[in-house]
Amino acid sequence: MEILSSLGDGFAVALTWQNLALALLGCLLGTIMGALPGLGPSNGVAILIPLAFTLGLGATPSLILLTSVYYGAMYGGRISSILLNIPGDEPAMMTCLDGYPMAQQGRAGEALALSGVASFVGAFFATWGLVLLAPQLVKVALLFGPAEYFALFTLAFATLGGVASSNQAKSAFAAALGLGLAMIGVDQQTGVPRFTFGEVHLYDGIDFLVAIVGLFALSEVFVFLEHRETDPSKATEGKMTIGRIYPTWSMLKSCIPTMGRTTVLGFIAGVLPGAGASLGSFISYSVEKRLVDKEGTFGKGDPRGVAAPETGNNAAAGGALVPMLALGVPGSGTTAVLLAVLLALNITPGPLLFQNNPDVVWGLIAALFIGNVMLLALNIPMVGLFTRVLLVPPRILMPVVAMISFVGIYGISGSSFDLMVMVGFGVLGWVLRKLDVPLVPIILGVLLGNEMESNLRRALSISNGDWFALVDSWLSLTLWAIAIVGFVLPIFLGHAVRRKMKSEQEEMIGD
User: Fold this and answer.
1) Could you give the 3-state DSSP secondary structure of residue 69?
2) Contact 372, 70 (CB under 8 A)
3) Could you give the 3-state DSSP secondary structure of residue 97?
4) If the chain, 511 residues long, is cut into consecutive pieces of 10 residues, what is the mean pLDDT of each piece?
5) Beta bridge mates, 185
6) Residue 376 forms beta bridges with which residues?
7) C-alpha closest to that of 486 among 226, 7, 220, 155
8) Helix 440-462 to helix 333-344 angle, to the nearest 10 degrees?
9) What is the pTM of this model?
10) Strand partners of residue 194
11) Is 157 exposed, middle or buried (0-12, 13-18, 19+ CB in 10 A)?
12) How many CB atoms lie within 10 A of CB 474?
């Protein structure tokens, strides 16, 4: 009853005209950004952070806008997957397998509408999972001391590569780079400048919002400048008919068991630190194919092959918010960006968030329910409109992204030095993407590096320099064990998972 009462208070916060308008705006912008190949939820949220701060929004309205963008981008990623066979982002990759064949059969509208319904089901029940699980996780988190927090942060870095990641070594390098960047500035305990090279502007450290916008948004502009001859609008001209935009009841009925199973699978994948929506999407599709694909129709336009990954990746999106809100450890790349927003608003995610800022956290959760309904209402009737987004040439889109980035960051800090740092991070992001080094561990290092260091120092101070204090409780031992397994397991399983994902895509293309 206490949870329902808190959720009711959250709806009182969310159901204001301003917050409803921001949720609607976030859903629209998120769907558009998700539809554009390559942008995805992380980039979409990163691009709009400066807008939220430039508008002078408070904590709750900013989070409502950006989480609506997050959920909207998860919906929108399926549009280019189904129509063009180009995933809008990595989690939407599995939707290509059956969505594109459905579109080739003249059932693009049905595939898009079905994926909208599946996305709604996954996100709706995952939000209920967030409501029920996060407060329980908070009770466990109150047992945490400095040693346990250090082990928890280590777990976050160890597992962030994920099973579907290209290379654990590259993920570890990215995390080390992020931790190194976090060390820049004046040491809080000794007052000694570190890695500032005499530059006064670096005494306060690197602003993580500058790093995020540079690494995600500006690097996207540099990637476009490198490949500017490719234009998605050419791929869509006269190529695809939408057909009917509402799925039949028999199609929906056949997909209901699929949606139920993959909601659970996706939510579990989202809650696990570092697994995220990509793994949720892949596991949902693979398990469902083994369970129900008796006639070998998966990969040839089976509606269940669209419903499974879409339900799974949206359930994972909701699940990833659980560790972010309850423990202060992001469960995915996009929640790492949202964690940065919370910190920029002087709100500390973790066990005390539900006590100190109940209006923010419950208002946000209520807004997720509202945003889901809005997305369902928007996505099915407006399928035709959202598909027109794919006709926007990148030569128009990318200058807008660059303009928002520069104006937004200058509006936040008023410092031209920060603009130069942002450009530097943009170039760094571009180089790392060419080398296939993930960007999210860098952001996590910048965000959590100082907290990780201060907890390590505190634990060692309490124990008078005894390093065994880091493994002195059952909780810290459990976290260290999960961290080691989470880092080592993908080295052995990751190659097999990626090979299976690639072979399934190749089979689909061959058919």
Assistant:
1) helix
2) no
3) helix
4) 81 87 87 70 74 74 85 78 67 75 80 86 89 79 79 76 59 86 83 84 81 81 72 44 67 85 85 64 78 76 84 85 80 75 79 80 87 83 67 74 77 80 91 84 79 85 85 85 78 62 55 51
5) 194
6) none
7) 155
8) 60
9) 0.71
10) 185
11) buried
12) 10
Q: Determine the Cα–Cα distance for residues 448 and 157; give it in Å rounded to an integer.
A: 10
What is the DSSP code (8-state) at residue 508? H
Residue type at 436 in one-letter notation: D
CA gap 505, 502 in Å, rounded: 5
Burial (CB count within 10 angstroms: exposed 0-12, middle 13-18, buried 19+), residue 454:
middle
- pLDDT value of residue 86: 63
Under 8 Å between Cβ of 255 and 303 = yes
Q: Helix, strand, or coil here: 153?
A: helix
Locate tokens 């659980």: which residue? Answer: 322
CA distance 6 to 28: 28
DSSP state of 217: I
* Token pair belonging to 126: 């995952």
How wide is the angle at C-alpha 15 spanned by C-alphas 13 and 17, nearest 5°?
110
Q: Tell me, what's the pLDDT at 238?
A: 41
User: How many domains is the chain partitioned into structurally?
Assistant: 1
Amino acid at 447: L
Query: Is 152:140 a contact under the CB 8 Å cutoff?
Result: no
Question: Looking at residue 504, what is its pLDDT?
Answer: 56
Q: Would you tell me the crossing angle of helices 59-84 and 303-319 to the nearest 10 degrees?
A: 160
**Interatomic CA distance for residues 478 and 476, integer angstroms:** 5
By DSSP bridging, strand 185-186 and strand 193-194 are antiparallel
Query: What is the per-residue DSSP string for 344-408?
Result: HTT---STTHHHH-HHHHHHHHHHHHHHHHHHHHHHTTTHHHHHHGGGS-HHHHHHHHHHHHHHH
For 123, the domain range is: 2-509
- Calpha distance 494→146 (Å, rounded): 32
What is the DSSP annotation of 9-67?
A: HHHHHH-SHHHHHHHHHHHHHHHHHHHSTTTHHHHHHHHHHHHHHHTT--HHHHHHHHH
> What is the DSSP-derived secondary structure letter of residue 214?
I
Long-range contacts, 454-463 (Cβ 8 Å, 24+): 454/188, 454/189, 455/146, 455/147, 455/149, 455/150, 455/153, 456/146, 456/150, 457/189, 458/146, 459/145, 459/146, 459/147, 459/150, 462/146
The type of residue at 136 is Q
147 Cβ neighbours under 8 A, 6+ residues apart: 455, 459, 469, 470, 471, 472, 473, 476
Phi, psi of 437 (to 5 degrees): -95, 125
